[in-house]
């Protein structure tokens, strides 16, 4: 099995694995300059929203926030479920506002509309402060902020890729510092469950059973199954199946891989068993999903 990762490595590896399987798509949609007493009403959106403060500062108000938040240069705020919010330069007429502010705004979504363990574990909004971010996250944000103000070949593609990486690192940062964790983040905060989750995500095609995962976690079979289900809302095998099918969606985008090859890679004993499970969870067969994806890309 090799050396087991420490808890921080296990957490970040699992989060990256889930985000990849769920086919996270991130795009920068605006680089907006403001001056004086400015105000932006952001309606509820069907996708996730984030704002990176490039220059100056701004206030954020939202029904989901107990109190308005003031963000400074380098801070990042994320609304995972696209909640409505207001951005403004100042809260009251008597308050002074920064002479100039710039916000880099983006959207993100996932390929599947099915349950997403990361999205379910995130709050309605979270903030990563520049002073709390690790060196890598701060440096990546600096690169994104610099590139946003330059005319570069393929700039939109570059900005989207940088934003994708920034979002992944922001989720990992939030997972590390969150106080009230739930779902997948709560499970990953438990060193024992984190070991099992890391092993499962590292080798999803392995013939895992509840007892073998419990052994990785260093727990009894019963205690492991109860705690896993309590935190994640699904049994270990149901979670494994969901992850395998999410990973299958990603792998099926590679036309060099046959459906049989994907089934084998993910631990299914037969292509027929894989097809049945895929259709039960996704509502369509893997072949139809692949055709629809090809038509979408071609259109």
TrEMBL record:
Secretion signal span: none
Ranges for the HTH araC/xylS-type domain?
194-292
Which organism does this record belong to?
Answer: Solimonas aquatica
Cross-referenced Gene3D superfamilies: Homeodomain-like (1.10.10.60)
PANTHER family reported in the protein's UniProt record: ARAC FAMILY TRANSCRIPTIONAL REGULATOR, HTH-TYPE TRANSCRIPTIONAL ACTIVATOR RHAS-RELATED
Write the record's keywords in alphabetical order, separated by commas: DNA-binding, Transcription, Transcription regulation
Keyword Transcription regulation applies: yes
Any Pfam family hit: HTH_18
Q: Does the keyword Transcription regulation apply?
A: yes
Q: Which GO terms describe its molecular function?
A: DNA-binding transcription factor activity; sequence-specific DNA binding
Record-linked InterPro entries: AraC_lig (IPR032783), AraC_XylS_family_regulators (IPR050204), Homeodomain-like_sf (IPR009057), HTH_AraC (IPR018060)
Q: What is this protein called?
A: AraC-type DNA-binding protein
């Amino acid at each position: 099995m090799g050396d087991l990762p420490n808890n921080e490595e296990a957490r970040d590896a699992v989060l990256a694995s889930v985000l990849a399987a769920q086919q996270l798509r991130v795009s920068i949609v605006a680089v907006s300059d403001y001056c004086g007493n400015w105000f932006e009403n952001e309606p509820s959106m069907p996708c996730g929203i984030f704002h990176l403060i490039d220059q100056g500062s701004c206030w954020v108000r939202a029904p989901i926030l107990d109190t308005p938040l003031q963000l400074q240069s380098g801070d990042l705020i994320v609304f995972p479920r696209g909640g409505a919010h207001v951005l403004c330069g100042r809260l009251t007429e008597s308050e002074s506002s920064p002479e100039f502010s710039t916000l880099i705004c983006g959207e993100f979504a996932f390929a599947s509309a099915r349950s997403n363990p990361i999205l379910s574990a995130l709050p309605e909004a979270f903030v990563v402060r520049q002073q709390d971010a690790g060196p890598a996250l701060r440096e990546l944000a600096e690169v994104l902020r610099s590139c946003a103000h330059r005319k570069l070949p393929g700039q939109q593609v570059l900005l989207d890729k940088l934003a994708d990486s920034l979002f992944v690192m922001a989720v990992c940062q939030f997972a590390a510092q969150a106080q009230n964790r739930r779902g997948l983040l709560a499970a990953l905060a438990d060193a024992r469950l984190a070991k099992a989750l890391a092993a499962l995500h590292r080798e999803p095609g392995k013939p895992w059973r509840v007892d073998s995962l419990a052994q990785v976690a260093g727990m009894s079979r019963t205690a492991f199954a109860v705690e896993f289900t309590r935190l994640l809302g699904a049994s270990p095998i149901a979670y494994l199946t969901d992850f395998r099918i999410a990973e299958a969606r990603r792998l099926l985008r590679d036309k060099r891989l046959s459906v049989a090859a994907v089934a084998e890679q993910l631990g299914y004993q037969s292509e027929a068993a894989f097809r049945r499970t895929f259709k039960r969870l996704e509502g369509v067969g893997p072949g139809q999903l692949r055709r629809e994806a090809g038509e979408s890309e071609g259109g």
